[in-house]
Structure formats: C-alpha cells, structure tokens
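Weekly modeling sync, notes
Attendees: AB, CL, MP (scribe)

Item 1: holo prediction request
CL wants a bound-state model with pyridoxal-5'-phosphate before deciding which constructs to order. AB pointed out that an apo prediction alone won't tell us much about the pocket. Agreed to run with the ligand included and paste results into these notes for async review.

Input as submitted:
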Amino acid sequence: MNDKNAGLATRCVHAGEIKDAHGSPHTPIYTTTTFKFDSTADLLDVVDGKKTGSLYTRYGLNPTVFSLEQKLAALEEAEAAWAFSSGMAAESALFLAHGRKGIVCIGDAYGGTMEFLASQLPELGIPTYFLLGSELHGLKTYLEAGVGLVFFETPTNPTLEVLDIRAISDMAHEYGTLVAVDNTFASPVNQNPLALGADFIIHSATKYLGGHSDITAGALMGSKHLLASVWNWRKNLGTMIAPDTAALLARSIRTLPVRVERQNVTAQNVAEAMTQHPKIARVFYPGLPDFPGHAVAKSQMKGYGGMLTLELNGGYEDAVQAVDKLKLFAIAPSLGGVESLVTMPVTTTHHGLTPEERARRGISDSMIRLSIGLEDATDLIADIEQALGSF
Ligand SMILES: *Cc1c(COP(=O)(O)O)cnc(C)c1O
C-alpha cells in the first residue's frame, strides 16, 4: 500500500508493509545478514543495481529495512528515505556527502550536532559557520562564498524558536545551495519541510518516531537523486539500522499520529495553564498566540508539538527545586516518548557553553524544558503546580 493520496494516518499504518507467505499483517523481521541467489547472474543484477533486492544487511539491502524506508518516505511524502542507527548517524552521513564545501547552521541545534559541526568537521577541513535565527541577513555572504549546505532545526531547542523554512530555502536555492531541516521536534505529523522547499529532512527517530524511549534510530528523507550519494557514506561508515530496531520503529510509526496529536493538545493545555502561574516568567510554546514565532509556526505547522520551555521567576536554585520536586516528569535528557520528561538546558543540552554564549542564545539558568507525554493534562498541570508551590 503506497497510495500517495492516502492520509497520513493511513500511510503510517500501511505504507511499506510487505506481504509474506504466512499472512503476517506486518513486515517480518529478517535478522539475517546475507541473502542467497539462484545464480551468479541473479546476484550480479542486484550488485550492479539493475534489480532491487536483498543482498547484505549493512548495505541496507534487507527486506525489513527496505520496508521501513518506504514507510519513512511516505511520512514526509519524499521520493526516498534512508534509515540509520541514530539521528547523529543520519546527520553525519548527510554532512559528509553534501556538506564538504561548507555548512551554515542557523539557530540553536542539538548538542551532538553542534559538537560535530563546531569541532569535528573542521578537523577534516570542512568549514562550518553559525548564525543566530536573528542574523539571517548574514546568510547571503556564506551562500555567495559557495557553501554546500544550510542546516537548521525548527522549532529549536530549548527556546522553541521558529525559523521560516520557505524563506530560508528560497534564499539558499538562489545560490544553488541545498537545505536540510532537522524535523525531530515537530515530527512529520506537525511539519513537512520538503513540501515547504527544503531538500533534506533529518529525524532523530529516537524521539517522536520511536515514541517509547526504547529505540535509537535515525532517518534521512529527500529526492532519490540527492539521497543516492549519501548511500555509500552510510554503507562504509557502517551506520545502518539493525533489522530488529527497524521493525520496532515501524511498529511505533503505526501509532505516530495518534500519539503526536494528543501530545499537541496536552502541551497546549499545559502551556496555557502556565502562562497564568505567578512563578512563571515566560512560557516558550509556538501554539501561544503571543509567542514571537507563532505567526510563522501557524503558516508552516499543522500542530505545535509536545515540547515547551518554562522560564521561572527566580534563578538556578529555584529551577532545580522545582525540577527535583516533579513526580510525573522524569529528569532525563531526551524527548518524544509516552512518558513526560524534564531537563534544564543549563545542566544538560547547553551545559558545555559559557554563560555568555548561553545568554547570547537567550538561554537562562531558570529554564525548564518539558517533553509532554501521554499522561492526562490535568495530572501534568497538577504536578507542575505542586512542584512550583514547594519553594
Ligand atoms: C536527539 C536529537 C538528535 C540526535 O539523535 P540521536 O538519535 O540521539 O543520535 C538530533 N537532533 C535533535 C533535534 C535531537 O533531539
């Protein structure tokens, strides 16, 4: 079932599923590392790319992986998708394949992405540049200089800054520069960057796509042509997804819209309740009408997601107090699962930055980032209220 006209929920359930000889409703798990052929001629057809077929699992030529990749492509209405062993694996293969002439990163990005861009790629002689979301006017200089790739997340971590995918893509394409969007925070339910002009989408499937905090995986979506040159990098870096994980990820994607739509509603409820709280200075959530990124979010997102950040009236000690008193929110540095999680950017994702750099990025010591799970909104709000009332 690969009907392009089918709705997202239908595609999540049915896209890519293969029929087996026993009537399994889902693609079976092929853990085998290699696949046999009837003849040398048959083998050569697959090796030479004349026929698609299973060959060797690290190459991605495995029926379970292939089935997952069709589902991943269908999620973002992309021509093609590659699955990876992690979100960083997807990013690193993309950067090495298409970013060698230089990469511009706009706005805040995931810690691992920042480390890879700021210190590791330059060690290989690959130039990388950084602009705040408010410094878009500076992009032209890098585009003129011939960088290969513009990369950004939206909404960003932890301030939920919303970047205009269409506007940035148009700017980059004037110079023939490719655009990659990390769509992890929004998920394909809320935002489809390819439809807004981007060339690549990256997902840490560890988060919403996996959705249960029990698998580590990544995905890259784009055109067949542009993804073709990423294939060898994944193959020889050896960052293929394992077939068991591929099957778990396909299982999770079947419920993705149901989970994310609920998380959107609950996050909106929590965000609205917190705007009223005397101990909260600011709520960062794109679904709030007076949030600075709301207008752009409204134009490019179908829902505002399950991530929000609270800034407390007070300092670091107050935020630690509140976080430590939460009962339903687990202190853990991830997101997108069925269980609600809490982190402080200053102790986790942005711990490595100097206080000056954090301030420049609008990140304060009293910020608390919440990943809203599938618990009842009333219970989550009551939990935050009791934690805030404890000091
Ligand atoms: C977690 C995350 C990554 C990295 O993904 P892994 O699966 O941990 O490698 C990249 N981008 C964003 C936005 C993330 O949240």
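Recorded for review: The pocket of pyridoxal-5'-phosphate is lined by residues 86-88, 110, 112-113, 153, 182, 184-185, 204, 206-207, 216, 218 (CB under 6 Å).
Action items: CL to compare against the apo run; MP to circulate these notes.
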